[in-house]
From TrEMBL:
Protein name: MHD2 domain-containing protein
Protein species of origin: Gossypium armourianum
Domain of life: Eukaryota
Membrane-traversing stretches: none
Domain MHD1: 82-225
Domain MHD2: 356-466
């Protein structure tokens, strides 16, 4: 130790980069041990059969005391610390090897000498230091995510890719953490990598969950269904007055929609930005996983099996992105149809006279939304969002027909108009072949197309179908008195509640009398 200290003092004057003190000491102890084994032990063996073993056990203990003090003062991982721990590990291997070779002929094979050399556990110290380093990095990442999410306004105009700037920063910090991890001069990258990637995965999941929270779901925007009523021959007349009143309400709401453009960070453009952001993260996760494998293969701890396993590094975040995109697409679609366009759909379509309150105003405004959507949403998720808007518009159309409240009534003659309006709606999404694929439109329009024929089925026939389907559903209990079938929301031409609702909105004396006699339904709410 004196020799190392004096050489360190003289070299410090030369201002050269020097090895840490304990690294040099480890090298010198190793040299001394091999010298002991070569020169002294063969002679001393005459008086002590394990003289080399005793010598290395003593040196092991002396160096161990110095190392213990050093380790207890470590605060964080630095290159110098790693260098010392590596030197200690190498010294220990040298000393143990000498002890084992010296004890080949002894009765216990040198076990007693080895017992006197408690391991330095340098690798365990390195492992704990790296784990502490990882924790510090992850805590910093989590803090950063929270701070930037508070400032994020989800403005699609923030950059030309139309995703949130905070996601770019989060991914940059993740990339830097992975880079820094693989630059650590250690041999246990593969063993400790899951600690880092799992922590990053949790941080990204946190970001993703915040990106979609508060945006609502389908049920947030679909209006509650009014109670069932029956029509009367005067329904159309009273409907005209209701239409006028509703139209005035709709106009005032429309002007509000125009000025506020949605509600802060949850407006339609902001929802588009959130969708784009999750799509961007999803794409970048693949890149990160591949880059991690490349790093691992070029690191000292190269191991093919582990490298192949890291393909699953960010599995939870990737799944959360997919789920988040789906939830946001659905929320956006139902918000457009049932909130932003409710003045032309829920409050306007077929209120009063069917012929004078047709679907054109709704289609015109919906087309504008679809144009903005096509310009804003990432091309990889655009079709999915438009498909959800189409599904929501079909749901809205059916809701108007089957749960539109007493301001609506349909006669048999209205069927042609309604069927034509629905064709206009599907045509908007087909867009002469430039829109959604025809088979996709066909798939999601099946329910509406199955129910529309009920609107030109004779009332007597409808009543018979309703009685038959209700008896089928309820069995013998339906013979004495027809039970009122509950609303399932699963519309179908063979579902009793759907048939009942068509009768409720049938502008026809026969239907009205049947509903009054069977269920005593009121004419108005």
């Amino acid at each position: 130790m004196e020799k190392v200290k004096s050489s360190k003092r003289s070299s410090n004057k030369n201002q050269q980069n020097q090895l840490p003190f304990l690294s040099i000491l480890a090298q010198d102890v190793s040299t001394l041990a091999f010298s002991e084994k070569a020169i002294f032990s063969p002679i001393l063996k005459r008086w002590h059969p394990l003289s080399a073993g005793v010598a290395v056990a003593t040196l092991h203990s002396c160096y161990g005391n110095e190392l213990k003090q050093f380790v207890s003062s470590i605060g964080e991982l630095t290159p110098d610390i790693l260098q010392v721990l590596r030197a200690a590990e190498k010294l220990e291997k040298d000393l143990v090897q000498i002890a084992v070779e010296n004890s080949v002929d002894s009765e216990d094979g040198g076990k007693s000498i080895i017992r006197e050399m408690p391991p330095y556990e340098a690798e365990s110290v390195v492992s704990n230091l790296v784990k502490s380093w990882i924790k510090t990095r992850l805590d910093r990442l989590k803090e950063w995510v929270d701070r930037n999410l508070q400032q994020e306004v989800w403005d699609p105009r923030a950059n030309k890719e139309r995703f949130a700037p905070s996601s770019v920063e989060v991914l940059r910090i993740v990339d830097e953490a992975l880079e820094a991890f693989f630059l650590l001069p250690i041999s246990i990258h593969a063993a400790l990598l899951p600690d880092l990637t799992n922590g990053i995965d949790r941080c990204l999941q946190h970001y993703i969950s915040k990106a979609k929270s508060g945006c609502g779901t389908r049920s947030t925007f679909v209006p509650s269904m009014p109670a069932l009523t029956r029509c009367s021959s005067r329904s159309k007349v009273s409907g005209v007055f209701k239409k006028k009143e509703k139209f005035q309400k709709a106009q005032s709401r429309k002007s509000q929609v125009g000025t506020t453009n949605g509600n802060g960070s949850f407006g339609i453009p902001q929802l588009y930005c959130r969708i784009n952001t999750l799509q961007h993260i999803r794409t970048e996760l693949d890149v990160l996983a591949k880059r991690t494998i490349v790093h691992l293969r070029s690191s000292e701890s190269h191991n093919n099996n582990i490298a192949n396993g890291t393909g699953k590094a960010f599995e939870l975040s990737a799944a959360a992105c997919l789920e988040g995109i789906q939830q946001l697409c659905e929320a956006t679609a139902y918000k457009v149809i049932f909130q932003d366009l409710s003045h032309v759909l829920w409050d306007g379509l077929y209120v009063g006279e069917v012929s004078s309150s047709r679907i054109e105003p709704f289609l015109q405004e919906l087309e504008h939304y679809l144009e903005v959507l096509s310009l804003t949403v990432h091309d990889r998720v655009r079709t999915r969002v438009i498909t959800e808007v189409m599904k929501a518009s079909f749901d809205g159309f059916l809701l108007v027909l089957l749960a539109g409240g007493p301001a609506r009534a349909f006669s048999l003659q209205d069927y042609e108009t309604i069927a034509e309006d629905f064709k206009f709606l599907t045509d908007l999404f087909w867009s002469n072949g430039d829109g959604l694929p025809a088979d996709l439109i066909q798939k999601f329009s099946t329910t509406v197309k199955a129910i529309l024929p009920l609107f030109h089925t004779e009332t007597d026939s409808l009543i018979e179908q309703f009685k038959y389907m209700t008896a089928e559903s309820y069995g013998s209990s339906a013979k004495s008195k027809l039970p009122l079938p509950p609303t399932s929301g699963q519309w179908s031409p063979t579902e009793p509640n759907t048939l009942l609702r068509v009768l409720c909105y049938r502008s026809d004396e026969t239907a009205a009398k049947f509903l009054k006699k069977t269920y005593n339904l009121p004419k108005k709410l």
